[in-house]
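hey m, so remember when u said the tokens were messed up on ur end? i reran from scratch. heres the input so u can diff it against urs
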Amino acid sequence: MTAHQARRRSVVRGEAPWWLLPAMEGDAWEPVGAELGGLGRTGASIKIARDFTVATLNNWGLSELAYDTRLVVSELVTNAVRHAGEPTRLRLLHRASHLVCAVFDSQDRPPVVTEADYFAETGRGLHLVESLSCSWGWRIMEGHGKLVWAAFAAPYVTPAAYGRNRASA
């Protein structure tokens, strides 16, 4: 198995939407966002994150994105559990034509893209993230760990369709 770090510091494929990083670093979740905190270092946290993602997207009227987003969230949370100790939180944001999922963890090491051996049982997660999302990347939060995100093309849903759905679990 060969491993290499992606060469860019905060974007692996594509560019982050202009509003993403300020929205992720603070609490400016406009127009709508949801957060799941307190994720632990167990397999149960991966299932909880997947279930939260599907329920949130269904509430937002974005159920057609639930399958791909669920898989990507599963990979990002799994990577945080395996390589960073534990994910601290998951955020989902929908703004205009983008749906973004982001996982925060306490490590300041960037994700490592690997080329898995044909028979390897691991090493394909970030390739899956890249295949299913329109762009993905990471940002080192100086002294606060990192944020790994993936963006999806999403239909526009009016804010009224969300109801009062700014959830925090």
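this time it looks ok to me. The beta strands are 2-5, 11-13, 32-37, 87-95, 98-105, 112-115, 135-140, 146-153. if urs says something different then somethings off w ur setup not the seq
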